[in-house]
Amino acid sequence: MKRAVVVFSGGQDSTTCLVQALQQYDEVHCVTFDYGQRHRAEIDVARELALKLGAVAHKVLDVTLLNELAVSSLTAIAFRFRIMNRTPAAFRIPSYPGATFCF
């Protein structure tokens, strides 16, 4: 039996990966990271979508401890930037420090 694990956010890219994995593997499990995101509904939607598409299981891993490493606009409720020789557009791109840390 061929098995796969898909890191699944519920977004377009990871959904495409999940659909492909479901076509190529007998058993597919999904993992979503809880990094303390402000949009908590993302986790619920990811779980619902993963199971609806046919994943065997969906697990949520708590990685909120990474919030101690840096501040992110994805997790901070009130986020203020100090602009130093940078354009404001540079601050509009949401990122999460350590997002690829596990890989």
Automatic annotation (TrEMBL):
Enzyme class (EC, first level): ligase
Catalysed reactions, semicolon-separated: 7-carboxy-7-carbaguanine + NH4(+) + 2 ATP = 7-cyano-7-carbaguanine + 2 AMP + 2 diphosphate + 2 H(+)
One function term, GO molecular function aspect: ligase activity
Entry-linked Pfam families: QueC
Keywords: ATP-binding, Ligase, Metal-binding, Nucleotide-binding, Queuosine biosynthesis, Zinc
SUPFAM superfamilies noted in UniProt: Adenine nucleotide alpha hydrolases-like (SSF52402)
InterPro entries: QueC (IPR018317), Rossmann-like_a/b/a_fold (IPR014729)
This enzyme's EC code(s): 6.3.4.20
Pathway recorded for this protein: Purine metabolism; 7-cyano-7-deazaguanine biosynthesis
Gene3D superfamilies (alphabetical): HUPs
Domain of life from the UniProt record: Bacteria
Annotated GO biological process: tRNA queuosine(34) biosynthetic process
Family classification: Belongs to the QueC family.
Protein name per its UniProtKB record: 7-cyano-7-deazaguanine synthase
